[in-house]
Amino acid sequence: MFKRIATSALIASAIALASFTTIASAEDSLYQRLGGTYAIAQVDNYLVDMIYINKGLNANPALKAIHEGNPDSKAGFKQMLTNWVVQETGGPKIYQPDSFGRGKSLKESHPHLNISDREFDIIKTLALASFYQYNVGNHEIDQLMDDLESYRKVIVVNTKAEAFTSRLKKDGVEYRTK
Fold first, then answer.
1. How far, in Å, CA of 38 to CA of 58, rounded?
2. For residue 177, how many C-alpha atoms fall within 13 Å in the half-sphere facing its CB?
3. What are the residues facing 170 on neighbouring strands?
4. What is residue 166's predicted lDDT score, i.e. its pLDDT?
5. Spatial contact of 122 and 57, defined as CB atoms under 8 Å apart
6. Nearest by Cα to 129 from 59, 64, 54, 55
7. What region, left, alpha or beta, does residue 96 occupy, with left being phi > 0 and alpha being psi -120 to 50 degrees?
């Protein structure tokens, strides 16, 4: 009798563990759900093109100098952004610092740009438009927008800008697709 109960308990435990493992691994990484490196590169290519021509962003002299200073740097920025997004979404660890000072952490690479909350929201809006342009799913958009928002405190350094209320929020609640 004890042997039968122990065997039943062992089988029930194995089934529970197998169910938990299946549930935990049921969702692929965000990197996989976005379609991998090439799909991410396509969206990033579009996004960077929109960032470079945006008049609201180019009102910031530091951003304008980068966007208009060296046209060749745009391709490199697209590559670095793609590498960063690939890595941040669960893909290969390919975002690495180089000998030219690129590929640093976001905290290290953005202070000189003097980005304001308004400029950060412009970038988020352009990112959202890029996701819609390439028909990224709502679940993935939610994750991407949440991830991007998590970097606001690291990227925004211009505290002298006029008071700003994000238009991506309604009644203090962050934009959601749900």
1. 28
2. 15
3. 173
4. 65
5. yes
6. 54
7. beta
Contacts of 76 by beta carbon, 8 Å cutoff, 6+ apart: 102
Longest dimension (CA), the chain: 81
* pLDDT (0 to 100) of residue 52: 95
d(CA 132, CA 138): 9
How many other C-beta atoms lie within 10 A of the C-beta of residue 121?
21
**Structural domains in the chain, sorted by start:** 29-174 (1.10.490.10)
Which pLDDT score, from 0 to 100, does residue 39 have? 98
Q: What is the mean pLDDT of residues 130-146?
A: 96
140-147 long-range contacts, CB within 8 A, separation 24+: 140/30, 140/33, 140/34, 141/177, 142/176, 142/177, 142/178, 143/30, 144/30, 144/89, 145/174, 145/175, 146/174, 147/88, 147/89
Q: Given the structure tokens 């935990």, which residue do they identify?
A: 24
Distances from the Cα of 10 to the Cαs of 17, 44, 118, in angstroms? 10, 50, 58
**Is the confidence at residue 175, as pLDDT, over 60?**
no
Tokens read off for 171? 């009644």
CB 133 within 8 A of CB 85: no
* Token pair recorded at residue 19: 């169910």
Taking the C-alpha atoms of residue 144 and residue 137, their distance in angstroms, rounded to an integer, is: 10
